[in-house]
Amino acid sequence: MWQEENKELSIWLNDAENIAHVSIEKMMTLLYVLRAWKRLSEEGAIENEVLKFETFYSDKVDAKKMETTFSKLADTHKLFRLAPSFIPAMFLFPDELLQTLVNMAKDEKKIVLPRVNTFFYGDTKTGAGSIGSDQVAELAVKLLKPTEELYVPCTYGFSYAYHTNSTIYAENINPKSEFVAELINILENTRIQFYLSNALESPSFTEGNASHILKEFDAVLAFPQINLKKNIDLKLDKYNRFHFHKGSSLDVAYLEHVLAQTKNKAVIRMPVGFAYRSGNERKMREYFVKNNLLEAVIQLPSNIYNHTSIESILLVINKHKSDSVINFFNLNHESLLKKEGRRTVLKTVDGLFTLYNIFDANDYDPSDVFTKIQAKEIKNNDYSLAINRYLMASDVAEIHERIDERYGNNIDVLQDVAMIKKSQLFKDEDGGEEVYEISPSEFVSSGYVTTATKKRYIGAKQKKKLETYKLQPNDILLSTKGTIGKVAIVGETDLPMIASQAIHIIRPIDSYEAITIYMYLKSKAMQTLLRHLVSGSSMPLIATKDLEHLPVPSFSEEEKREMHESFEEEQELDRKIQKLKGQKEAIHERLLGEKQ
């Protein structure tokens, strides 16, 4: 936080806030404007001597005079036209406070202000769609290697401006961004050409007089707000940008806009769900792969942003790729991260960029951090870009290696030995048959499950679906949504039962194999594999296709017998545990005098 690095300033601001009843944000905003006024005056950008900072400083300082001066400066300087919206009426500042702030603006060596972007967008001040992480911004700029121009639509922060000498062309609909961009230009010598506009509905940058042709930039950087939903009619877009966007989610729309204004390379942040969700997002991924536009998918650390825990990825788009591979880079890897307080940060950005360039060469060793995947393999995975499909964690690789060494070619996949179905939603119907719905919380720790508590009433409209999803003895239940990896096996019961939507039903082709598969799924090794199949952040889940390809060795008859014996042994241990728990409770009851 900037307050920790500027302790003296922070203490003074807190005291001033209590005495003058003007917020710290308003005082700091005015201080930046005063410092910018001083800079403009020194550089000759203000020609009228009467309106220069030094002239004002050398005379009496009061609120009315400052307000009048700012009003005159607004006729020739953009900053002073924008400032009144972000600074309260001057009369709210006591003259003594104004005098102190003017002195602080004058003395740049003694009063060092935090970077403009750090104050207005750093820490927990994010605004909708802000970058939130200077490290992510730096890495994105390095991946782009921008030359003369960098186009940045849909972002409310400017930390990327500190990592490039390019002229920045930026736009969004937040007036605060226009004000902050102007401050950064004056105080930190950047070149941001900012336009107050909506990049999707009314983009600002076109080809000269040809307002129907969008300008293409050599490098484009975009940080759209994650999972932004808004109903915008984009059907009559005169630039012909939108072919895959559908509905209120704007993720795909931003991607299509970025493509339309990219001449060479673009980096765009997307929610991690874009990598695997179906519908228009899947169509967009297919378009990227088929047209050889995607250079890399970079998984960002899960807690790198202060303002959200939503996981995200960087997509590196390259319109001039020379090969058909896509690089997958996992930055959410413990070897690349460190903790700073409650935050997760990257150990080094320069090192990561160097690593990326090394891996970009042909002679590299695949790891659980980086790999190259051919477009054909991504097609075979239904165009999924989920990083855990292609980067195998070390513990997962070790399990696969053990299975391969022991069973060689005698390995099936789960869909070869069982039918796999994701349970469906059933709605109650008046006069319907009473059916019991089991949830993962009701799975028993060992042995067969035969009961459930939640009742559903299913009538004629859902009869056919009930026949398909009604549980049978020896069905294996696996929790794959929310709670991941809990396993149960259905026993003989007179209760008609179905499974909740959080469950996949695994029905062995040979019912004798049910206990074998049940015990195998409960094993430590398989629980590890299941954890690495999880996608989603707000709601963890495992997709049916990922379950279908779980490895299942062809166990020997002796191994199957051992698993059946372990199944019985586990139940016996549970019975003993329950007996011991009862004895323990009896001790407590006796000590409390509740029983004689």
Topology:
Blueprint: H1 2-5, H2 7-20, H3 24-42, H4 53-57, H5 63-73, H6 78-82, H7 95-106, H8 116-121, H9 134-144, E1 149-153, E2 167-172, H10 175-188, E3 192-196, E4 206-207, E5 210-214, E6 217-222, H11 251-260, E7 262-271, H12 280-290, E8 294-299, E9 312-318, E10 325-330, E11 337-340, E12 343-346, H13 349-359, E13 370-374, H14 375-380, H15 394-407, E14 411-413, H16 414-417, E15 418-422, E16 433-438, E17 448-449, E18 454-458, H17 463-469, E19 476-481, E20 483-490, E21 497-499, E22 503-508, H18 514-522, H19 524-531, H20 544-548, E23 551-553, H21 557-591
Parallel strand pairs: 1-2, 2-3, 6-7, 8-10, 16-21, 17-20
Antiparallel strand pairs: 4-5, 7-9, 8-9, 10-13, 11-12, 14-23, 15-22, 16-18, 19-20, 19-22
